[in-house]
Amino acid sequence: xxALGVAAAVAAGERTARSVAEDYLDRIGAxxxxxxxxxxxxxxxxxxxxxxxxxALGRGExxxxxxxxxxxxxxxxxxxxxxxxxxxxxxxxxxxxxxxxVVERLRAAGAVIVGKTNLDEFAMGSSTENSxxxxxxxxHDTSRVPGGSSGGSAAAVAAGFAALxxxxxxxxxxxxxxxxxxxxxxxxxxxxxxxxGLIAFASxxxxxxxxxxxxxxxxxxxxxxxxxxxxDSTLIDQPPEPIGDALTDGVxxxxxxxxxxxxxxxxxxxxxxxxxxxxxxxxxxxxGDVLSxxxxxxxxxxxAGAEVRTVSVPSxxxxxxxxxxxxxxxxxxxxxxxxxxxxxxxxxxANAAEMNVNTRTAGFGAEVKRRIMLGTYALSAGYYDAFYSxxxxxxxxxxxxxxxxxxxxxVLLCPTAPTTAFELGAKTADPLLMYLNxxxxxxxxLTGHPAISVPYGRGDDGLPVGVQVMGPALSExxxxxxxxxxxxxxxxxxxxx
Amino acid sequence: MSGAExxxxxxxxxxxxxxxxxxxxxxxxxxxKLFCGCANRFGDEPNTNVCPVCLGLPGSLPxxxxxxVDFAMRLGRALGCEVRPAVFARKNYFYPDMPKDYQISQYxxxxxxxxxxxxxxxxxxxxxxxxxxxxxxxxxxxxxGGRIHDAAYAxxxxxxxxxxxxxxxxxxxxxTAEQARAYVRELRAILLSIGVSDARMEEGSMRVDANVxxxxxxxxxxxxxxxIKNLSSLRSLGxxxxxxxxxxxxxxxxxxxxxxxxRHWDEAQGRTTPGRSKEDAEDYRYFQDPDLxxxxxxxxxxxxxxxxxxxxxxxxxxxxxxAGAGAVSASDAALLVERDQDALVRAAVAVGADPxxxxxxxxxxxxxxxxxxxxxxxxAALIAMETSGRVTATQAKQVxxxxxxxxxxxxAIAERRGFQAMAGDDxxxxxxxxxxGNPDExxxxxxxxxxxRKKLAGFFIGQVMRATRGRADGAAVNRxxxxxxxxx
Amino acid sequence: xxxxxxxxxxxxxxxLARLRFSDDELDELAAQLSAVLDHAADVEAxxxxxxxxxxxxxxxxxxTRADEVRPSLSRDEVLAQAPSVAEGQFRVPPIxxxxx
Lengths: 497, 488, 100
Ligand SMILES: [Mg+2]
Ligand SMILES: [Zn+2]
Known about the structure:
heterotrimer; B: alpha+beta; Arc Repressor Mutant, subunit A; nine-stranded mixed β-sheet; three-stranded antiparallel β-sheet; 16 helices; 15 strands; elongated; C: mainly alpha; Histone, subunit A; 3 strands; about 35% helix; about 10% strand; flat; binds magnesium ion; binds zinc ion
């Protein structure tokens, strides 16, 4: 059942929120041992949430639009009194004294929170393998990764463990796992959703967004969490537009651009092949089967009345480097606070500085350390101008190029991820190889623009393929509308495992 | 000002000149902290004014306190700065009292730049910048007598973490220890008059670091400087600068050179001791804080701040000097403004009181916390009694003291106490008696030089005062003495 | 493998970041970071004259809050999460050296 289906059934009294919650908890109990989507299942709390919804309905009180909908939260969203780990040893056992704004909003909407989902430690990764608690597996093929870093949330929706889930997206961490798991995943415009209570990875790119089995579910999730919050200074001071009624509008007359640089077109391939001459060469062009699905999707939109053309955003190929410099720089500072003094892990030392070193060395995993090292280097006095400062200028360049393209087209289309889900362990040895997964999703994070991944058919290996729709700032209504059209046109081989 | 400036003597004597710049951190007296709604309050139980934001808990985000920005801009304008668009940056370094292990500060785009501060004596010190930043928590070293190096462990209280500060950085325009102290005094007077800080050095709401170097007098070069910390009083500031200047002169003179470093002032030992070396310069990895957005004060906002600024100490001193028409001394004017008594003096002068005497009487004899019962009219009446010779200076002081307590009319107080200056024949007779009783002294008075005469005049006035139990007017006695020594 | 970052440089960065690595780990890190920086050569080589940096995707300014006191956390709740506590405060090993 879809999230909206659950909400309707509960509101109509056809199902109790408790019985829905029990169903989902049973499914988690039966299946999550194999998938590993959850770091923590909140059985008691979920049933209590559900009972509250049922009691409110019983008293004839109004319930929210997500009444009784089981929701999974990425475990980097703070939940008051409930462990919040970021899948790191550093925060094992930490119970935040406050909840993230999005968590408060979901509760106010009547949602039932069923658990905290696994992620790449501190959201750094593209496969959910960098977790202190072990990897999450793809429900479509458990030898494969679910993508990442919000792999647990994507897998939870794909496996039917939750009707909706929240993730965070810094470089594709919602959209890429959504693509690999065959669900819908959406990153809002930067500043649309409060980051208060989202444990920061890279503050100027992080954005919380929904996963759903359908576009309509994801839209409902987005509507529940979007909007102003006095606790986040970086929010857009403009009420979000409602989405739901736009989903059936169709794409008649819309101008759709297919981004050449993000579709394996010449320059990008050359660029990706030429990285360092060793492991990375030639591998990272967008796979043929994925490109075919994007082509199919473009044709489907054309048939539905859209005007499709190929467009060029040359700076898109600089995105990957700029992204790793900026996010690592911000992360190196954001993660300084894990010093063993106030919360989380403390490994003693002869003096405070040594305690800091011991704690951080023991508490962080290899990928987190690598990014802290890269970011510290990029910000340090001698290299700031060569790398960090230039990366910020790439961002300017990109914003200008995208603005120019959006003069000519309404939305952009490209693959979400270069390939379908890959085998566990396939890319863990070479960080750069792993980073290349994000090449198509990163531009929207650097520009702060919204983007959505919709399942569109299967790859040659039978695994889901995601197509990405990108739009200019604040175009949520538009990209959801295009995504809904793609969903209607998609080959009917099912989008959940 | 005076010759009692050891720093200047030490530095200048051998042809050396002192070069000092001050960095002053001022805690703003807002109701809440800089980035969260926790109370900005001193003296509460440790870790009771803390929240996710000021504890730097994962996921928390800062939101700027509008009042802190307003206070900082007010201060900037009071220092004659350009108040401009500003950006918050992160200064990254690890320290247990800093919850996020970075300090949110302003770096290359501070709120205020390019101002100046005119000292009471007229010397002008340039202000390079005044930027907003957050305070750290408070660390207590436990064991080893509380000394940092042999403590057993340390305790951290985050109540102060996130309290709004403005750091005011002067240009190296200060040339004597006394100027440094005058700078801090003047800055404090400005802070108090614009109401942005209680600026108490002893309580740490105003913290001064001094960058000290020396150079051959008149050379214009800037030599290696040391930053002196832990200066908790004006006295320490003056002593530390003097000490440090002498140390630098000694080093340079013996062919050595000071190391660029932070040094601590040891008040008990009266010396500075080496701290962190600045040669392995800290790499703070500053970058714009992505959790905050820039401040962009409009011209109207700045104009409104200017319009609401009260008269500042320098202007008030000038006004008082003008009101005194040459009769009020610069030092009295400085003191009166510092004590906020300039308006009282000006009001008394406006209703006819003698400016010079009013300023002297108030600056010498009204050094009390609460002088609210002394009205301009009452003060003017008192001064009138004194100038007319109706009461003596001694009596006037006693009347003023009673006015502070009771606030009564000075004429009534003088009457109640039976005060009346002895005048005319009675006084002359007493003076003659005293002269007759001290013939040797009188001889010396008449034949001595100016200095002897002055000294002996004091002696005779004292004798007359004793004989009249303070009812004589000293000036009148002096007049009589002079008349008798050189009869017309 | 390029040598953009030496072991010594990696060690220096590790000190700044308060992390410790073995020599082997440092060598591996130096190589991996060098590869990422090689990849970033396109950014490094960019002619940025006339391009302003963008630190933030939204051009917002002057987001402030009113100076009103809000409830703080309970001290018990705060200290319950701390690894080491004494006298109502966070306890840490002795601190050597003053704050910068
Ligand atoms: Mg400072
Ligand atoms: Zn607070």
